[in-house]
Design brief:
The structure holds six protein chains of six kinds.
Chain D: H1 7-15, E1 38-40, H2 50-54, E2 60-63, E3 68-71, H3 81-85, E4 91-93, E5 107-110
Chain E: H1 4-36, H2 46-55, E1 60-61, H3 65-85, H4 90-109, H5 114-145, H6 150-154, H7 160-163, H8 165-178, H9 206-228, H10 235-254, H11 261-284
Chain F: E1 6-8, H1 10-22, E2 26-34, E3 39-48, E4 51-60, E5 65-66, H2 75-86, E6 90-91
Parallel strand pairs in F: 1-4, 5-6
Antiparallel strand pairs in F: 2-3, 3-4
Classes of the chains: A alpha+beta, B alpha/beta, C mainly alpha, D alpha+beta, E mainly alpha, F alpha/beta.
The structure holds NI-FE oxidized active center (NFV) and iron/sulfur cluster (3 copies).
One iron/sulfur cluster sits between chains B (25-26, 28-29, 63-64, 91-93, 98, 123-124) and A (62, 65, 147).
């Protein structure tokens, strides 16, 4: 049958980031999809040769602007583990607060983009409008809206005053109410459900086999979340991973929607239990040895492999981001879909190409 | 006739359609660019629409570091824009390569590939700064004649 | 004078055929074809001033016509029987045998043979068809001259089979002329059978296995139609005691059960017009060289069917039969349009579209109001011209690109600018105002508006028609003009027929108000004459080149004015646009930057990938096989209903 | 499944205050401690070079000999590291962002190298 | 027949006033949409700025037929509006308007760009979807008034809406498709991001895009004119009906996601044909 | 202090990986470390119920390594990445980008190698 072959990306209005898919379609049904990467590849892991391990904090934070804070946290945890540094409690809680705020903004951002992928402009705008409040919190408490730069090896760089905590709490109440008001639209609207239910199905077995991570994994019914590893202050917070069983785009959306609210709740818990104390400890010595650390990013499990050699520069810094893990499932999901579903399914794994390629 | 030409000229700065290209940015700049379009900043007030298609765009907003693969894309897109056109580079990466200047696969800033009309520093710049950048770009846009 | 014209229109082609068949010199044959064609054109044009008239001949060229026809009829049936035996086809054997028996019974026991003459009636309806057959048919035959050379060159034939081919081609013209002019149902039956035989010969011309199979299928289905027609004749003879067509129309409405033979005649017409469920023979006819398909589709053969229905229509005004005919036609219109959507083979698209348009004509005949009749006539005329043009274009294209798949015609304009443009214009005349086809459709829809089921099917069908035509026209132009266009050289005998048809399609559309007053109004008067109960009025008034009625207007001339202004503007713009900067196509920024790989993008692994574009054939939604199955089932039910309703 | 659950939200949007900030007609006050434009109080600088060494972007050059403090504002990522490590606290981030520019720029500040006394230092020249 | 004066008036209004009105309505539409999305939105005159700017841009083409087709589209749209103001035959107006649609498709297909080609195919499917519905609505009008002429509708004593409520809904359905509003912004979306970039419009740029925009202004007027016919008895009634319908369109646009064309065809035919059938039968019975 | 790993060889790698897969482990990723002039370390990371298991394969430079993308399709991406960055060749890659996953023709080196620049070799087809 007659086939249309088209390039989907690297520049494409529905793709916020450059990824390329060579799509072959018949009557708009995808018969073949082949990805091409490399449009965002910088090779920043290699910078560890010429930047010391402290400077690397700022660099790994810029792996991605959406999940930056958590990158820095994961990296710092790795170095701290390697060097045997015990981070003060208050710093641990603060790390949770900011990282969960990051998740909230990332998920709101995604919910908007996802709505945009199926052409629901008003919903997109609504989510992004809500998100601005979270961005304000980021900016007010850290000095930048996106790249917050609050982590350092040994602790955090900024503190939250009691007044700020109250303000955050109040703002988050508004955010929560507004997000809740959109639940019916996001998860129960007829047109939205038509576009997401049963689209891009990934069974739990497939998800495991293809190494899916994060909401993509949890949307397929596997309740695995790195926060269960109880890093930072998660050992002192109530947390249960969220999962939905269907494995379709709708489930992944539902996971993220629920996680948004859950993260708001986690921020509140952490603020309520925030202990007094130091913000950071002085770090002495040079990193040596090997360590693997994992944390939960908005998009899923993030793994850092760090190898120090006793100098200020690391020997190897390897970052495995969740989107990197979610690309193979994506490639498997695409064939058989309609062309119009391609952006929906691509977005449904919440692809972050700059994370993927670093 | 003159009145029509004047109207066309004055319309130019009232209707800048922009295209945003993520040229290897970390997303920080991209999401701030996108935020400009959203209700809180709403650049459609100035007639700005994100068209996502070089053939319709007047302003190309580029963020991120240039690498060997995306520089061709960047050049392609620039070429496909009809004159007059302006380029706004945003973020440290777009300006010079930022923290990644010395990373192995980085060529440098946007102006290594295409001429840049406005530079917006920051990492990432705030949406307001991006609006400033577009405004500066528009001034140049108005000056450019149909080449 | 009448007899001379009749001689040229009917007998001359047979003589020309003999000449073609026996003279082995190519130049002579070509000359015979061209001259015959020219004579036919002239004769048919001369006929315009003569209608209406009736003549009857007892003999022509010194031979007793009626008994000759009788004899020929038996011979023909015998030959068909022989063919059935030769191809070991039980169906054909049974059908031919049955017809032989019935015909014999009819001739021997039911008729008195005092009036051994043959009557011809030339009224506006038959005149229209004569014009189409003679003019469009001749053009096709002329176009066939260079075409067949190419064709045989391609097949590497050592002994040319063209004599045979052209003989049957011109025979078909004569037969068709006779068929539309005769007033005797039995003679009609004979010519009807003769067209079947012609189609068998022409379809099977190439002698391949597929061609033979398809020709046998055409013969088989055609014989079914023949049988239905013959049965109808028997009934009429039995009930009304006459086989004169005009008599039948006059008497039938008042005779009880006369609708049953009417229904049988309709079924015969459906077979000939390849209506569902009988469409397969026409699709099979596609294996033949393109002139055959063009002739079968646009101007002859299939038109015999709709002619029969239209001819008989006054005989069943306001009956249930009429309603069912309308329903059946509308259904075929919709169903075969749907089937056309799933096709990428140009000739199959044309074939389904033919069936579909004939369905529309039949629906109009069934609606059976003056406006609908006018619509039907317009559709017949313009369909013949545009469709002939498209067939010849496809034939020309096919010989050049060696494919009839429209997917292979992307950007054909660059390689064959003339033919591609003509094809695009041909398509546009099929679907857009102010051209005649659309006007016919407009009349059809307006006259069917109050008939809920019919209008629903027409509305859906016309939208689907637009879909499968427009995309074809679009892709012919689909190419960047960077490299410039290579001029196209065509043999004169290829080019002139195409240009003539194209010009004809446009010009006739412009003239449609005058065609209306000159042909259609008298035709409606004739209906009144034939059927005193009808009391039809001419549906439209024409003034200032506009067709108007209480129910609507179609300002032909003003629209043409706009068209001309628009074209002028458009062409100026086109000229202006030459100064525009040449931009590569949007490929998400990934277009390949080297000139060696145009229209390509850099894909995975850094490899250039050529973009491909394809139409949507909705094959998952409408798989041809399945849809055909449903359509045929539904059509059989409808046809049964029709026959039963005739009781 | 519901039809149009978004309707209340959009109707609310239509009748309530729009959320668009009127920038650039009204400019919002920056939050305290925002990391805006980097600014060097060259008077205080002792040209120790710490900032240049610690800067993750390596965008500062300090020339002790000539008393030059040079920063590439187009490469600076406004991370605040230099501000933190400067022994004399002469670096700060302003609240407002660095203005956009039409061409490439460098911040070049000339101070007095520490060997000499500061009293006769010429007025620092900010290159913009 | 119409007097010369009436003819000229219709010509002037149709050719010059209609696009200005259409542009204003489009501007208003964008403004209201923005407010619905809690934004300020562009000035009302924005569509004119856009068109003017586009007219002043460089000509960029891949295939010069694009230019030709764009102009034919414009001429067809203008002609249909003029015919509308001349109170001509509705079915004919609709067919003339289809000329524009076909040429838009041909223009988009004349470029071998997959996005524009897919857009063209989708546009055809949109035509396939709304055309029967519109024809049926017109047939309903015929059944009710006995004519396809607009003048026949103005001769009515009471608004058509009362007799053809379901057909009005069908018309709304068809018009949403024709206006390419969500959930049917399938072949080309006005401003939202879409998987096929800008579909049929992808390869048109600068002045040629401006032409298409102007043609679109005409179409808006034609469409709203068609809506107004359903309350032909009073001018205020017409305005109110048009305003309400358009508001409803904007609202629907903003509370639904874009659907796929498969869904569009099946749902529009299923819903549209059922409603038509009921209404037509109730009229003819 | 190094992370606890299980040492494997080129011969046992695929079998070990298969075993892990059958036991329900999920592949997380693989890491390549440039050890010295002659050797790479390839570390494969697996996860099951939040526990991790690492396989370490030390390979000489220049010799091809069996791909595990036949066992875990998902591994094709990371193996391609390593091919790009370190110039290692994988045998039997399910989807081979032939050194062009991230890099264009302009980059003729293996950018992540510390010890000497290994020329890129055409990947095994
Ligand atoms: N979440 C996240 Fe990242 C990381 N790590 C990942 O794919 O977003 Ni930009
Ligand atoms: S300038 Fe900063 S925020 Fe922008 S892309 Fe570069 S690192 Fe990311
Ligand atoms: S660290 Fe401070 S004092 Fe030292 S050179 Fe930098 S700015 Fe001057
Ligand atoms: S703010 Fe950061 S990047 Fe900028 S100069 Fe200071 S340390 Fe360097």
């Amino acid at each position: 049958m007659a086939q249309t072959i088209l390039p989907f990306g690297p520049q494409h209005p529905v793709l916020p980031e450059p990824i390329h898919l060579k799509l072959t379609v018949e009557d708009e049904i995808v018969v073949d999809a082949l990805p091409a990467l490399g449009y965002v590849h910088r090779g920043l892991e290699k910078l560890c040769d010429i930047r010391d391990y402290n400077q690397m904090v700022q660099i790994v934070e810029r792996v991605c602007g959406i999940c930056s804070k958590i990158h820095a946290m994961c990296y710092c945890q790795g170095i701290e583990e390697m060097m045997g540094v015990e981070v003060p409690d208050r710093a641990k809680f603060l790390r949770v607060i900011w990282s969960e705020l990051h998740r909230v903004h990332s998920h709101l951002l995604w919910l908007g983009l996802f709505a945009d992928a199926f052409g629901f402009e008003a919903l997109f705008y609504q989510f992004w409008k809500i998100r601005e409040k979270v961005m304000d919190i980021n900016e007010a408490t850290t000095g930048n809206r996106v790249i917050v730069s609050v982590n350092q090896v040994g602790g955090v760089r900024r503190d939250l005053s009691a007044e700020q905590l109250r303000w955050i709490d109040a703002e988050l109440k508004v955010v929560e109410a507004q997000v809740r008001a959109l639940r019916a639209t996001t998860l129960d609207d007829y047109t939205v459900k038509k576009r997401t239910k049963g689209i891009g199905v990934l069974s739990s077995a497939q998800a495991m086999e293809l190494g899916a991570a994060g909401p993509t994994l949890r949307g397929s019914g596997v309740a695995q979340d790195m926060r269960q590893l109880k890093y930072a202050a998660f050992d002192r917070l109530d947390f249960q991973p969220i999962s939905y069983p269907d494995g379709d785009s709708w489930s992944r959306c539902a996971v993220r929607y629920d996680e948004t609210l859950q993260s708001i709740d986690l921020v509140r818990q952490a603020m309520a239990r925030l202990p007094e104390g130091e913000l950071s400890v002085k770090v002495k010595g040079k990193p040596e040895g090997e360590v693997v650390t994992r944390v939960e990013q908005p998009r899923g499990e993030l793994l850092y492999y760090l190898k120090g050699n006793g100098t200020n520069n690391l020997d190897r810094c390897r970052i495995r981001t969740p989107t990197f893990a979610n690309i193979p499932p994506l490639v498997v999901m695409l064939p058989g879909l309609e062309l119009a579903d391609v952006p929906v399914v691509v977005l449904s794994i919440d692809p972050c190409i700059s994370c993927t390629e670093r | 006739m003159q009145a029509i030409l004047d109207f066309i000229k004055s319309s130019r700065i009232k209707s800048p359609w922009l295209m945003h290209f993520d040229c290897g940015s970390c997303n920080g700049c991209d999401i701030e660019t996108l935020a400009c379009l959203t209700p809180v900043y709403d650049v459609e007030r100035f007639g700005i629409v994100n068209v996502g298609n070089p053939k319709h765009a007047d302003i190309l907003i580029v963020s991120g570091t240039v690498n060997h693969r995306n520089k061709k894309v960047l050049a392609n897109l620039y070429e496909q824009m009809p004159h007059p056109k302006v380029v706004v580079a945003i973020g440290a990466c777009g300006l010079s390569g930022g923290v990644f200047r010395e990373a192995p696969n980085v060529v440098g800033g946007i102006d290594k590939v295409i001429p840049v009309d406005a530079y917006v520093p920051g990492c990432p710049p705030k949406p307001e700064a991006i609006i400033d950048g577009v405004v500066l770009g528009l001034q140049k846009f108005a000056e450019k004649s149909l080449a | 004078m009448h007899s001379t014209l009749m001689f040229i229109l009917i007998v001359l082609p047979f003589l020309a055929a003999i000449a073609c068949a026996v003279v082995p010199v190519k130049q002579v044959r070509s000359a015979v074809v061209v001259v015959t064609g020219a004579l036919l054109v002239v004769a048919s044009l001369l006929l315009i001033g003569k209608v209406p008239f009736e003549t009857s001949f007892t003999s022509m060229a010194g031979l007793p016509l009626a008994s000759m026809t009788q004899l020929a009829d038996f011979l023909l049936l015998g030959f068909v029987l022989f063919l059935g035996w030769k191809h070991k086809h039980l169906g054909i054997k049974i059908l031919a045998g049955a017809q032989l028996v019935i015909l014999f019974a009819l001739e021997a026991f039911m008729m008195d043979h005092h009036a051994a003459s043959m009557a011809f009636v030339a009224d506006p309806l038959s005149l229209t068809l004569v014009l189409i057959i003679s003019i469009v048919g001749s053009i096709i035959c002329i176009h066939a001259i260079p075409y067949m050379d190419n064709h045989e060159h391609h097949l590497h034939l050592t002994i040319s089979r063209q004599p045979r081919f052209f003989a049957w081609l011109v025979v078909l013209l004569g037969t068709m002329n006779a068929l539309v002019l005769t007033n005797d149902l039995l003679a009609f039956y004979f010519f009807f059978e003769l067209t079947t035989l012609c189609s068998y010969m022409l379809i099977g011309h190439d002698g391949t296995e597929e061609a033979t199979n398809n020709s046998v299928r055409a013969l088989y289905l055609g014989s079914m139609g023949g049988l239905a027609l013959l049965l109808g004749a028997v009934f009429f003879q039995n009930m009304l005691g006459s086989l004169e067509i005009q008599e039948i129309i006059k008497l039938a409405p008042s005779a009880g059960y006369a609708m049953l033979p009417m229904a049988l005649l309709c079924v015969a017409a459906f077979v000939k017009s390849a209506q569902a469920p009988f469409q397969s023979w026409l699709l099979g006819a596609m294996v033949a060289p393109t002139p055959t398909s063009a002739l079968l589709h646009s101007s002859t053969m299939v038109k015999a069917g709709v002619y029969l229905v239209l001819r008989m229509a006054p005989g069943f005004v306001d009956t249930t039969l009429s309603t069912y005919v309308a329903l059946f036609g509308a259904f075929t219109f919709l169903a075969t349009a749907l089937l056309a959507v799933s096709q990428s083979n140009a000739k199959r698209i044309l074939a389904y579209s033919t069936v579909s348009n004939l369905g529309l004509i039949i629906a109009c005949a069934g609606i059976n109001t003056p406006a609908a009749t006018a619509a039907a006539l317009f559709l017949i005329i313009f369909h013949a011209v545009s469709k002939a043009l498209l067939f010849l274009c496809v034939g020309t294209i096919e010989q050049r690109i060696e494919s009839r798949d429209i997917e292979d015609m992307h950007g054909l304009f660059v390689r064959m600018p003339v033919t591609a443009s003509l094809a695009v214009i041909g398509v546009l005349t099929m679907i857009l105002p102010p051209f005649g086809m659309l006007m016919g459709k407009w009349m059809a829809i307006e006259s069917a508006a109050a008939n809920v089921p019919v209008i629903m099917m027409l509305a859906l069908g016309s939208a689907i028609t637009l879909l499968y035509w427009a995309r074809w026209a679009g892709l012919l132009m689909s190419h960047p003009l960077q490299g410039g266009v290579t001029p196209e050289v065509q043999p004169k005998l290829t080019k002139y027929p195409l240009v003539a048809l194209c010009g004809g399609a446009v010009l006739l559309s412009l003239l449609s108000p005058w065609i209306y007053s000159a042909l259609i109004v008298p035709m409606i008067d004739m209906v009144n004459l034939a059927n005193p109960q009808a009391m039809f009025e001419a549906p439209y008034v024409t003034s200032k080149g506009m067709l108007g009625a209480d129910s609507g207007v179609f300002p032909v001339a003003p629209l043409f004015l706009v068209l001309i202004v628009g074209m002028f503007l458009g062409l100026r713009v086109l000229k202006n646009a030459q100064g525009a900067r040449e931009a590569s196509i949007y490929l998400a920024g990934a277009q390949s930057r080297t000139a060696q790989t145009p229209d390509s993008f850099v894909g995975p692994v850094n490899q250039p990938v050529k973009v491909a574009n394809a139409n949507y054939y909705l094959t998952r939604l409408l798989p041809e096989g399945k849809v055909t199955c449903w359509v045929n089932t539904a059509a059989v039910l409808l046809a049964l209903l029709l026959v039963v309703g005739g009781l | 499944m519901r039809l149009g659950p978004m309707v209340p939200t959009v109707v609310k949007n239509l009748i309530s205050k729009k959320s668009t900030r009127p920038y650039p007609f009204v400019v919002r006050e920056p939050f305290p401690d925002q990391r805006g434009e980097l600014y060097c109080d060259i008077e205080q600088c002792i040209f120790c070079g710490t900032c240049a060494r610690k800067c993750p972007s390596q965008c500062i050059t300090v020339d002790k000999e000539q008393g030059l403090w040079i920063c590439d504002p187009f490469a600076c990522v406004y991370c605040g590291t230099c501000e933190e490590v400067c022994p004399t606290h002469c670096l700060h981030h302003k609240g407002a962002w660095r203005p956009v520019a039409g061409e490439r720029q460098m911040i070049e500040m000339k101070g007095t190298p520490p060997k000499k006394k500061k009293k006769d230092a010429a007025k620092d020249a900010a290159a913009e | 027949m119409m007097s010369i004066l009436g003819f000229l008036l219709a010509l002037v209004v149709g050719v010059f006033v209609a696009p200005i009105l259409g542009g204003l309505i489009t501007g208003l539409d964008r403004r209201i949409t923005a407010r619905i999305q809690s934004r300020l939105g562009p000035p009302i005159l924005q569509p004119f700025y856009d068109v003017a700017k586009l007219l002043g841009k460089e000509k960029l083409l891949n295939n010069s037929w694009q230019a030709f087709c764009a102009y034919v589209y414009l001429v067809a749209a203008a002609t249909s509006v003029v015919l509308f103001f001349m109170q001509s035959d509705l079915l004919l107006i609709f067919f003339v308007q289809a000329v524009g649609a076909v040429f838009l498709v041909i223009g988009a297909m004349s470029v071998p760009s997959p996005y524009s080609q897919i857009g063209a195919q989708r546009e055809l499917i949109q035509v396939l979807t709304y055309e029967p519905l519109l024809v049926l609505v017109l047939a309903g009008i015929y059944v009710h008034t006995g004519t396809f002429k607009i003048s026949g509708i103005y001769a009515l004593e009471e608004p058509m809406l009362l007799k053809l409520p379901l057909l009005f809904l069908v018309l709304g359905y068809a018009l949403t498709i024709k206006l390419r509003k969500s959930p049917f912004d399938i072949s080309a979306s006005a401003h939202a991001h879409q998987e096929i970039v800008r579909g049929v419009y992808t390869e048109f740029s600068g002045p040629y895009l401006a032409i298409l925009e102007i043609a679109h202004f005409y179409e808006v007027i034609l469409i709203l004119g068609l809506v107004s016919l359903f309350w032909s008895t009073s001018f205020v009634g017409m305005l109110v009906l048009v305003a309400l319908t358009y508001l409803a369109e904007i609202l629907v646009d903003n509370v639904s996601s874009r659907m796929t064309w498969r869904w569009m065809v099946t749902s529009a035919w299923a819903v549209g044909l059922t409603l038509t059938l009921i209404n037509l039968l109730s009229l003819t019975m | 202090m190094p992370i606890p790993t299980k040492q494997v060889t080129k011969e046992t790698l695929v079998a070990e990986v298969l075993q892990l897969k059958n036991a329900g482990w999920r592949i997380v990723t693989a890491t390549c470390v440039d050890l010295n002039e002659n050797e790479f370390d390839l570390i494969y990371h697996f996860d099951k119920d939040l526990q991790m298991e690492h396989l370490r394969l030390t390979v000489p430079k220049g010799a091809p390594v069996p791909s595990i993308s036949g066992v875990y399709l998902a591994a094709f991406l990371v193996e391609n990445e390593i091919q790009d960055q370190f110039g290692l060749c994988f045998d039997g890659l399910a989807l081979n980008f032939a050194n062009h996953l991230y890099l264009d023709d302009e980059v003729a080196t293996t950018p992540f190698c510390k010890f000497g620049v290994v020329r890129k070799t055409a990947a095994a087809e």
